[in-house]
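Below is a filled-in request sheet from our internal design queue. Each sheet records the structural input a requester submitted and the sequence that came back. We keep these sheets so that new team members can see what a complete request looks like end to end.

REQUESTER: design group, bay 2
PRIORITY: normal
MODE: inverse folding
CHAIN LENGTH: 274
BACKBONE (tokenized):
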């Protein structure tokens, strides 16, 4: 009886012959390598993080936004009202620059993580956004109180006040800091300020920092609503640039696992690729 075996290196095939009748054994099943969706999504954000943290263009856009804020503040302060005037600003990517946190996340191939975010905010070392301190000091000199309405967690209160105070921001105290306590919708917090003050201007990096209706991106990604509210936006809201995260991306990627977010993003590309 004649037996022989040939191993085909690299093919996974094993040919064996017995009595001159060759048979092909099935290759052992090898599991496909798991796709690391977190790393894929993280890498997807690299350009945005570079743009936010390194681009002179972004630096200038912030300055430009705060220059326009002075013009609008002067116009809106002319309208008299007995209530004290107030300016409302968001915090992250509006008056504080968190791009170092984002750079680190990309470096490690990670997406947003609440625990890691708190480690960053606990340091209280974020730098001020270009033009922010100068504008808010100017607003204070013009007789405006400043309220910081942010979706940072209430557990980040002390470190946030410290960070703002260390940088010299005006009104950086508990009474002027309205953090997220349950909902990311800022409508109620804005109304609380409006119950005692005349809001003369709002500044943020998200349209939702002005009006919660901008959460809805179902019609033309929200651009139709921007056009419909153009007059109000022009007079009362200063929008600053942030490509790193926000409603624009959440509306496409949705909630869930990184794999689900990645799949929705791919589906969006497919749908809009014409
Ligand atoms: Mg923000």
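RETURNED SEQUENCE:
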């Amino acid at each position: 009886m004649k037996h022989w075996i040939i191993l085909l290196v690299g093919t996974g095939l094993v040919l064996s012959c017995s009595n001159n009748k060759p048979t092909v054994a099935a290759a052992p099943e090898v599991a496909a390598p798991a796709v690391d969706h977190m790393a894929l999504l993280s890498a997807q954000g690299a350009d945005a993080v570079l743009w936010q943290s390194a681009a002179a263009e972004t630096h200038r856009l912030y300055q430009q936004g705060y220059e326009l804020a002075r013009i609008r503040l002067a116009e809106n302060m002319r309208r008299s009202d007995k209530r004290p005037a107030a300016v409302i600003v968001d915090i992250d990517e509006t008056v504080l620059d968190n791009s170092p946190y984002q750079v680190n996340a990309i470096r490690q191939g990670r997406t947003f993580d609440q625990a890691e975010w708190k480690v960053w905010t606990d340091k209280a070392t974020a730098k001020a956004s270009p033009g922010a301190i100068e504008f808010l000091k100017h607003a204070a000199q013009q007789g405006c109180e400043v309220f910081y309405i942010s979706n940072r967690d209430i557990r980040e209160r002390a470190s946030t006040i410290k960070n703002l105070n260390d940088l010299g921001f005006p009104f950086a105290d508990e009474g002027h800091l309205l953090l997220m306590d349950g909902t990311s919708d800022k409508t109620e917090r804005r109304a609380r300020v409006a119950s005692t003050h005349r809001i003369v201007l709002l500044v943020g990096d998200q349209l939702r920092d002005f009006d919660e209706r901008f959460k809805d991106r179902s019609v033309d990604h929200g651009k139709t609503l921007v056009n419909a509210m153009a007059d109000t936006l022009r007079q009362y809201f200063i929008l600053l640039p942030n490509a790193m995260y926000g409603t624009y991306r959440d509306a496409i990627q949705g909630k869930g696992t990184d794999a689900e977010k990645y799949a929705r993003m791919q589906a969006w590309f497919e749908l809009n690729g014409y």
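SHEET NOTES:
- The two ends are 65 Å apart (CA to CA).
- Residues 206 and 246 are 7 Å apart (CA to CA).
FILED BY: M.R.
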